[in-house]
TrEMBL record:
It is found in: Cell membrane. The gene is CDH8. GO terms for molecular function: beta-catenin binding; cadherin binding; calcium ion binding. SUPFAM superfamilies: Cadherin-like. The lineage of its organism: Eukaryota, Metazoa, Chordata, Craniata, Vertebrata. The chain crosses the membrane at residues 613-642. The keyword Transcription does not apply. Keywords: Calcium, Cell adhesion, Cell membrane, Glycoprotein, Membrane, Metal-binding, Repeat, Signal, Transmembrane, Transmembrane helix. It holds the Pfam family Cadherin. Cadherins are calcium-dependent cell adhesion proteins. GO terms for cellular component: adherens junction; axon terminus; catenin complex; synaptic cleft. Residues 87-167, 168-276, 277-391, 392-496, 496-618 form the Cadherin domain. It comes from Trichechus manatus latirostris. GO terms for biological process: adherens junction organization; calcium-dependent cell-cell adhesion via plasma membrane cell adhesion molecules; cell migration; cell morphogenesis; cell-cell adhesion mediated by cadherin; cell-cell junction assembly; homophilic cell adhesion via plasma membrane adhesion molecules. This is Cadherin-8 isoform X1. It is a single-pass type I membrane protein.
Length: 799
């Protein structure tokens, strides 16, 4: 407490000492109470100065101004005296009045207009406002006339150490790599002090660490935090809390201080090798496990984190390196052992592997801590499973001649149970692959026999599937594909490759090739086809034609003479025997048709028909047909043109003008009932204009032609009209060309919400209640007449 009081006194007297040194001569005349006096003098008063003042060689001025000072945060029972304004024009008769204006005049600073004393009436804060500019003036008390020009002066607020340092950006967070050397820079912090940095040591800060030693240190002036210990290990401690203090007054006792926290996190480096949790792993796997299945997982732990903990796994030794593989799981950081090849319990029951885990990212700075790898042993035991039968071959290829006898054996498949129990096997054919049931198989020994005859020309290959099933466990089955190739035998005779038809010109020459033919054989000899051609024995000496074998296995037919005449013989048939080279050889007879035709001089066939001789010279049958077709087409066009002209001049409905009057419908008279025959003309019903024929409409085109009815003779007026109308109605119903002139529409629905209700009287006869129709008169003028009619009817009923 005494130290704090001494510092406050020092803060109070220091500005006064500085003021004493820097003020002009007039300030030395301040009273003993340390108040500041601003004086004004005139040349007339210079002679009155004492000798001591003359020695100073300083002349007075009209207003000699300087700065005034006032301490901030001063609080007392009375306003604090800041200074005094005085002019030597004031003889003391109180005829001069002092006026103060400017910043804070009247609100913060108050002046005694008689004595010129300036007081601070409010508590000041330099951090809010450091100085005030005011204007002073001396005026006549009575007239308020200025005695001197106004002058400005400044009142400065003198700072005291009233603000502690603050860390505006705290708390702080920083990182530094683990295993860093001594003195590695971590971060720096900054504190601010609101006090005056120029005046005194109020804003001079010194930094120190209150908590966090001996791990970190701080530069007192720059606030740079550094590591104080080398090789700090993240795996031992990852996070540190450092408390930092900033103290003003240069760190001396009595200064104000502020604190903040800094959280330092050690980042990871790869300074730890991977390590397997155990040196020996045991796994078991069934022998029938699917390839690629995960058998087990091994993991090497690494105290590092992130990519520094990533490890790759490999199988470096063991008797199962070809059967197993290991892959790395980047998420779980472990190794997955998978099966690469099938296992067989009967062949080998266990395997031993040596696996290695090595870091992927190695930091060369810590290579001396290595090696960054570890190994472990993995033992895998194969478990026995009930396996399906195994065929001796994955596929089978069998061959059979197409003339093989039924039930003959064409091949055999074998299979065994790989298990130790060795169950017997039963064979069968998947009938989905042998829909025609052409093959059978012996269920015990797997011999495949022929069930139906084969024909290579229909199908060369037959693909079937054989099923092997364990007798003791029917769920264990295996399948194998069997391809059966049908071998060819010479069972088809050769024949012409196509249907040939030869043409012989009448003006042909002897030895001329009429046609070249080739043969085909459905069989497939190993050395290719070779055919022999010959004529029938009875036609060897054919006087008209001969044959010649060509090198390309084809045959040419030649004419022996010329002078063929189609009038004598139009067609010649030449049987040819074709034999193959099979064993035994087969042959067939094919007949070649040769037509005699008329040809041009250069041998182009023109006509092969005998009728061409009877046609006029220069015209063939085709030309005559074309001419007749043109004539018929012209006749059809003329008929259509005439028909269209007639239709254009006729009216749509053939009726006389005198009958138009019968189509007028009158709505203003009422019929007299069924006995009234004067309201219509019975002749209209009889249709006298249509008696002799059918009158079709011209404005429509009927889809079906209706046969016109026979005309009816005129009947007298006493005819039965009902029978007459029924006859006409029957004819109209059966006439598809007649439009529906008459139609009946039934309105049996009045609609919902009708105010008037139903006007129908069809149901009136079923009700015994009296009906009152007076309400019709209330519906308006449109129903007035109707209401009168019903009212009359009701009155007549009553009478």
């Amino acid at each position: 407490m005494p130290e704090r009081l001494a510092e406050m006194l020092l803060d109070l007297w220091t500005p006064l000492i500085i003021l004493w040194i820097t003020l002009p001569p007039c300030i030395y005349m301040a009273p003993m109470n340390q108040s500041q006096v601003l004086m004004s003098g005139s040349p007339l008063e210079l002679n009155r100065l004492s000798e001591e003042q003359r020695i100073l060689n300083r002349s007075k001025r009209g207003w000699v101004w300087n700065q005034m000072f006032v301490l901030e945060e001063f609080s007392g029972p009375e306003p604090i005296l800041v200074g005094r304004l005085h002019t030597d024009l004031d003889p003391g008769s109180k005829k001069i009045k002092y006026i103060l204006s400017g910043d804070g005049a009247g609100t913060i600073f108050q002046i005694n207009d008689v004595t010129g004393d300036i007081h601070a009436i409010k508590r000041l804060d330099r951090e809010e406002k450091a100085e005030y500019t005011l204007t002073a003036q001396a005026v006549d008390w009575e007239t308020d006339k200025p005695l001197e020009p106004p002058s400005e002066f400044i009142i400065k607020v003198q700072d005291i150490n009233d603000n502690a340092p603050e860390f505006l950006n705290g708390p702080y967070h920083a990182t530094v790599p683990e295993m860093s050397i001594l003195g590695t820079s971590v971060t720096n912090v900054t504190a601010t002090d609101a006090d005056d940095p120029v005046y005194g040591n109020s804003a001079k800060l010194v930094y120190s660490i209150l908590e966090g030693q001996p791990y970190f240190s701080i530069e007192p002036e720059t606030a740079i935090i550094k590591t104080a210990l080398p090789n700090m290990d993240r795996e031992a401690k990852e996070e540190y809390l450092v408390v930092i203090q900033a103290k003003d007054m240069g760190g001396h006792s009595g200064g104000l201080s502020g604190t903040t926290t800094l959280t330092v996190t050690l980042t990871d480096v790869n300074d730890n090798p991977p390590k397997f949790a155990q040196s020996l792993y045991h796994f078991s796997v069934p022998e029938d496990v699917v390839l690629g299945t995960a058998i087990g997982r091994v993991k090497a732990n690494d105290q590092d984190i992130g990519e520094n903990a990533q490890s790759s796994y490999d199988i470096i030794d063991g008797d199962g390196t070809a059967l197993f593989e290991i892959t790395s799981d980047a998420q779980a950081q472990d190794g997955i052992i998978r099966l690469r090849q099938p296992l067989d319990f009967e062949t080998k029951k266990s395997y031993t592997l040596k696996v290695e885990a090595a870091n992927v990212h190695i930091d060369p700075r810590f290579s001396s801590r290595g090696p960054f790898k570890d190994t472990a042993t993995v033992k895998i035991v194969v478990e026995d499973s009930d396996e399906p039968p195994v065929f001796s071959s994955p596929t089978y290829l069998l061959e059979v001649h197409e003339n093989a006898a039924l039930n003959s054996v064409i091949g055999q498949v074998t299979a065994r149970d790989p298990d130790i129990t060795s169950s017997p096997i039963r064979f069968s054919i998947d009938r989905h692959t042998d829909l025609e049931r052409q093959f059978n198989i012996n269920a015990d020994d797997g011999k495949i026999t022929l069930a139906t005859p084969l024909d290579r020309e229909l199908s060369v290959w037959h693909n079937i599937t054989i099923i092997a099933t364990e007798i003791r466990n029917h769920s264990q089955i295996s399948r194998v594909p069997v391809a059966i190739k049908v071998l060819d035998v010479n069972d088809n005779a050769p024949e012409f490759a196509s249907e040939y038809e030869a043409f012989l010109c009448e003006n042909g020459k002897p030895g001329q090739v009429i046609q070249t033919v080739s043969a085909m054989d459905k069989d497939e000899p190993k050395n290719g086809h070779y055919f022999l051609y010959s004529l029938l024995p009875e036609m060897v000496n054919n006087p008209n034609f001969t044959i010649k074998k060509n090198e390309d296995n084809s045959l040419s037919i030649l004419a022996k003479h010329n002078g063929f005449n189609r009038q004598k013989q139009e067609v010649y048939l030449l049987p040819i025997i074709i034999s193959d080279s099979g064993n035994p050889p087969l042959s067939s007879t094919s007949t070649l048709t040769i037509r005699v035709c008329g040809c041009s001089s250069d041998g182009v066939v023109q006509s092969c028909n005998v009728e061409a001789y009877v046609l006029p010279i220069g015209l063939s049958m085709g030309a005559l047909i074309a001419i007749l077709a043109c004539i018929i087409l012209l006749l059809v066009i003329v008929v259509l043109f005439v028909t269209l002209r007639r239709h254009k001049n006729e009216p749509l409905i053939i009726k006389d003008d005198e009958d138009v009057r019968e189509n007028i419908i009158r709505y203003d008279d009422e019929g007299g009932g069924e006995e009234d025959t004067e309201a219509f003309d019975i002749a209209t019903l009889q249709n006298p204009d249509g008696i002799n024929g059918f009158l079709p409409r011209k404005d429509i085109k009927p889809d079906l032609q209706f046969m016109p009815r026979q005309g009816l003779a005129p009947v007298p007026n006493g005819v039965d009209v009902d029978e007459f109308i029924n006859v006409r109605l029957h004819e109209a119903d059966n006439d598809p060309t007649a439009p529906p002139y008459d139609s009946i529409q039934i309105y049996g629905y009045e609609g919902r919400g009708s105010v008037a209700g139903s006007l129908s009287s069809l149901e009136s006869t079923t009700s015994d209640s009296d009906q009152n129709f007076d309400y019709l008169s209330d519906w308006g003028p449109r129903f007035k007449r109707l209401g009168e009619l019903y009212s009359v009817g009701e009155s007549d009923k009553e009478t």
